[in-house]
Task: inverse folding
């Protein structure tokens, strides 16, 4: 019995020792783990704890505003109530959308835009269903928010364009940051600049000056509970508003020109020859930039994108056209400077020119009789320039016309400018793998054929002619202003190039351009003008007509009719404004384009005259 108790006691001590060892080992492991967490991983877990305790709330910076040259605001900020949804928090999205539709009006356009954004944005992004709500709509939704998880009514910053469609190609628009935008931003060093930002400049000045306009996002560092309730603000960095743009554009002139175009298509650029400041930059038809701010729906996009009027095409920047007879002053200078023609040299213009078996017709079938260089511009003799082009050849024409900037980007402060085409034999071989044929020279001489220039290029060249060979870089932004400090950085005039051209030759050509508007094709439009205009009308073919056929606009489809062009500067003796424009399918240059140019000169010069008289 005693031996049994001794063995039992021994077993108990062994078991107790084993259990004690396990307990000590467990405590040792716990101590090691505590040391690991509290000492070695202290900073990591402290940061995680802070993240759970602290929320960083972005505060979006107000976007810079845009003003015209007279201080009138043409793009501004505002605020509005928006109905927004976080789809990942909504148990049944379709039921929620249906219920919201019983509270306020949600049309098919809203739904299509919402679904498109949902497919493009990230899972946790908040998506606007209705970008703007009135007070009554806000009240109807707010009382039901407790039934609508993931739905919120928020005050958000809005971009407003007070003049609607006006200047839309010039201003461009902002839009939601797309997946492609986000990838580009993340690949650059700009990711931190867009923290908490939902929109970005997409076209026009909104895109070209995005860096200046967007400002810097601020933040509120908030302490929160485990349940997500905000307790207090720990730190705050105020947002820095974007910089304001002050343009050289005359907003009133811009709208006057747009009204003059009406439903017609075309482009116009007016600028100050001495500085390159752009006074008007018109593309017609235009579009409503507000449609794009929160994502345009597919139906509206298709209607705009597939319209035969091409309202989304920035015509002054990206549209190219044959210049027609507006090219003749530059051809005349090329002929004089190259020695191909002297001022007194004459030809007999019977109304056509034969090259081999091909008959090149003149716009005046009966001809212009004896024509020298000055008269060739005044009466716009095609025959004179057919012969000049034959004698010069395409490469010599290219050599003497290229310095005026044709077929080259002007460097205007917008994104997406095209080169256009100033042909040469080398260009044709590279483009078509074909040699240049002598029979192609004639159409080049009258601004047809492969010639294809933008109205921006045409306006810059015209301003260079007015400036006697000094070509200034065109600019839209006159100054950038810091709204916080009031500091203003002005953009200085910038010389593009100096064309070496004889003063005697310039005087001759400019004098002929003045006579165009006194006794030539522009005389009726500028009758009674209190200033002298140096200009040239132009008509450019859209479709080819057989050499034995006569053009009849009434029998041609509207979109196949000739384009109407005009280029000019005034006052001729001391130019203050130069203009180039086209009215697509408008016919004779003096009929459609020149009257719009008269509006430009009357507006600018009457105001300048009034200012001088004060």
Result:
């Amino acid at each position: 019995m005693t031996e049994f108790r001794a063995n039992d006691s021994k077993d108990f001590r062994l078991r107790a020792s084993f259990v004690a060892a396990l307990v000590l080992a467990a405590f040792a492991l716990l101590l090691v783990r505590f040391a690991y967490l509290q000492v070695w991983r202290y900073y990591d877990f402290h940061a995680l704890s802070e993240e759970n305790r602290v929320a960083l709330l972005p505060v979006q910076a107000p976007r810079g505003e845009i003003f015209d040259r007279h201080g009138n605001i043409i793009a501004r900020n505002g605020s509005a109530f928006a109905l927004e949804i976080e789809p990942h928090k909504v148990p049944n999205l379709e039921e929620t959308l249906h219920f919201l539709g019983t509270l306020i009006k949600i049309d098919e356009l809203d739904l299509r835009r919402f679904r498109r954004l949902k497919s493009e944005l990230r899972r946790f992004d908040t998506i606007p269903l209705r970008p703007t709500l009135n007070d009554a709509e806000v009240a109807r939704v707010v009382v039901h928010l407790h039934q609508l998880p993931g739905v919120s009514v928020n005050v958000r910053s809005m971009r407003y364009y007070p003049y609607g469609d006006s200047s839309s190609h010039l201003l461009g628009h902002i839009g939601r940051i797309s997946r492609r935008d986000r990838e580009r931003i993340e690949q650059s060093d700009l990711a931190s600049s867009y923290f908490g930002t939902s929109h970005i400049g997409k076209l026009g000045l909104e895109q070209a000056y995005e860096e200046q306009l967007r400002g810097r996002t601020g933040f509120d560092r908030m302490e929160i509970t485990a349940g997500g309730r905000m307790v207090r603000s720990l730190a705050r960095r105020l947002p820095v508003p974007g910089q304001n743009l002050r343009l050289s554009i005359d907003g009133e002139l811009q709208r006057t020109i747009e009204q003059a175009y009406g439903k017609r298509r075309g482009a116009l650029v007016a600028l100050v020859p001495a500085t390159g400041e752009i006074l008007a930059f018109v593309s017609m038809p235009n579009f409503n930039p507000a449609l794009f701010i929160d994502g345009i729906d597919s139906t509206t996009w298709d209607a705009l994108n597939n319209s035969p009027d091409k309202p989304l095409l920035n015509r002054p920047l990206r549209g190219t056209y044959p210049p027609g007879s507006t090219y003749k002053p530059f051809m005349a200078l090329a002929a004089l400077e190259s020695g191909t023609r002297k001022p007194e040299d004459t030809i007999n213009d019977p109304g056509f020119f034969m090259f081999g078996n091909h008959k090149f017709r003149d716009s005046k079938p009966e001809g212009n009789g004896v024509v020298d260089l000055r008269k060739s511009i005044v009466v716009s003799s095609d025959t004179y320039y057919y012969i000049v082009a034959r004698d010069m050849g395409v490469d010599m024409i290219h050599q003497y016309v290229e310095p005026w900037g044709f077929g080259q980007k002007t460097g205007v402060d917008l994104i997406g400018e095209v080169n256009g085409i100033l042909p040469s034999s080398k260009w044709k071989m590279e483009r078509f793998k074909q040699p240049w044929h002598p029979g192609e020279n004639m159409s080049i001489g009258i601004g047809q054929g492969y010639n294809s220039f933008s109205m921006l290029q045409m306006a810059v060249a015209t301003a260079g002619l007015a400036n006697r060979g000094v070509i200034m870089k065109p600019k839209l932004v006159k100054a950038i202003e810091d709204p916080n400090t009031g500091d203003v950085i002005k953009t200085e005039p910038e010389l593009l190039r100096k064309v070496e051209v004889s003063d005697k030759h310039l005087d001759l050509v400019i004098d002929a351009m003045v006579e165009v508007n006194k006794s030539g094709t522009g005389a009726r439009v500028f009758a009674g003008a209190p200033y002298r205009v140096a200009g040239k009308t132009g008509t450019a073919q859209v479709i080819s007509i057989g050499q034995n056929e006569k053009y009849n606009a009434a029998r041609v489809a509207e979109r196949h009719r000739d384009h109407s062009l005009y280029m000019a500067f005034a006052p001729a003796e001391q130019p203050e404004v130069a203009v180039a424009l086209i009215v697509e399918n408008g016919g004779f240059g003096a009929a459609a384009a020149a009257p719009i140019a008269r509006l430009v000169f009357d507006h600018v010069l009457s105001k300048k005259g009034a200012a001088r008289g004060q």
About this structure: The longest strand covers residues 73-85. The chain has a mean pLDDT of 87. Residues 82 and 131 are 5 Å apart (CA to CA).
